[in-house]
Amino acid sequence: QRPSRRLVRKYVTPATVVEIVASALPTSEPDLLKVDVDNADCVLVRQLLAVFSPLLLHVEVNPFFPPPIVFRRKFQGAQDRADAAGTAMKGELGETGRQQRLAESHAGGCSLAALLEDANARRRGGADALPGQQRYELLHVEYANALLARQDVAVSLRATLG
Hints:
- This protein is of the alpha+beta class.
- It is built from five helices and six strands.
- It has helices at residues 17-24, 41-48, 94-104, 112-120, 151-161; strands spanning 32-35, 56-60, 81-82, 88-89, 136-142, 145-150.
C-alpha cells in the first residue's frame, strides 16, 4: 500500500468528476492524471483541467479519427442509451456498460485532435483561457493512448533528453 496512490471506484459523470477526483487527490498539481473511461474521455478531461494542472496527462483516444479530425462522443450516462429503433434502454454501469458501449460503435471516446483542443481550451491562448495556465504538448501516442506534458515539463524534458 502506497500513501501517494489511492484507488477510487465510483461512477463519474462530467458533473461529478471534479468532486470525485478532488476527494482522492491531495494536490491540484498531481504528477500524472490518467483518464480512460471508454466514454467521452475528452469531456471529462476538459472538466478536470479547469481545476487540476497535472505534470503529465495520459488519456485514451480513438485511433480511428486521425488528426486533423476533431471528434468527440457525447457523454453517455446510464440513462442515455437507446436501441437501434431509438427506444430508450437502461444502461449498465461498470464492465457490462463498457462492453455495451464498445459493441454499439467504434465511434467512441474522442480523437487526438479533440483531446488537444480540450486539454488546452482553458490554457494560455485557448478558447476559454484562465490566467497563468500552462498549455499541454503531445509527447507520445501509442495506438489508443496519448501522453501529454504540461508545457514547463515538456521544456525540461527536451532540455534533459535532447
